[in-house]
Design a protein that fits this description.
Order of helices and strands: EEEEEEHEEEEE
Structural class: mainly beta
Number of strands: 11
Low-confidence stretches: none
CATH architecture: Beta Barrel
Strand order of the largest sheet: 1-4-5-7-8-9-10-11
Shape: elongated
Number of helices: 1
Helix content: under 10%
Distance between the termini: 14 Å
CATH superfamily: Lipid/polyisoprenoid-binding, YceI-like
Largest sheet: 8 strands, antiparallel, barrel
Number of domains: 1
CATH class: Mainly Beta
Length: 176
């Protein structure tokens, strides 16, 4: 395939995360409102242009009170910092359909490089003749690197909220 513009099909895509709670369990959540701009040859992502914008107010952990707290100044502060943004800066092939994608993540007013492992899942035509591609990505970031330091000490030792946030992304896109 040639380098093509791809539109993300949000109804068949997901951006999810997990973080340790009380050092004994994981809380999972997702973001429902996001956009991405992808210009790529799916068979060779090394020349791709990839950017993603996540509306942080769309956070969903299946708990209304927790979601409201995450939107507050204690965490995302969506009034001042409504989006998380990612822009790829380097893409290295790491095997058949496997890539290491490094890019700038901007969150809470801080921009830092982060790296994600990306898998090209394949391509095909849907029943209506539209060309589709699929990608999966995993990575992690530290909340403290972005000034997201809200926490509470536990009387048994440790903290209420882990610093590492694991990220999982599933993208289905169609030619623009």
């Amino acid at each position: 395939m040639a380098k093509t513009n791809w539109n993300v099909d949000v109804s068949h895509s997901a951006i999810e995360f997990s973080v340790k709670h009380m050092m004994i369990a994981k809380v999972k959540g997702s973001f429902h409102d996001f956009q991405a701009q992808i210009e790529a040859d799916p068979n060779d992502l090394t020349t791709a242009s990839i950017s993603v914008q996540i509306e942080l107010a769309s956070v969903d952990t299946r708990n209304k009170d927790r979601d409201a707290h995450l939107r507050s100044a204690d965490f995302f502060n969506v009034e001042s910092h409504p989006k998380l943004e990612f822009k790829a800066t380097k893409i290295v092939k790491n095997g058949d359909g496997e890539y290491v994608v490094t890019g700038d993540v901007t969150l809470h007013g801080v921009t830092r490089p982060e790296t994600f492992n990306v898998t090209y899942e394949g391509a095909g035509k849907d029943p209506w003749g539209n060309q589709k591609v699929g990608f999966s990505a995993t990575g992690s970031l530290k909340r403290s690197d972005y000034g997201l330091t809200y926490n509470a000490a536990l009387e048994t030792g440790g903290v209420l909220i882990g610093d590492e946030v694991k990220i999982s992304i599933e993208i289905e896109a169609a030619t623009a």
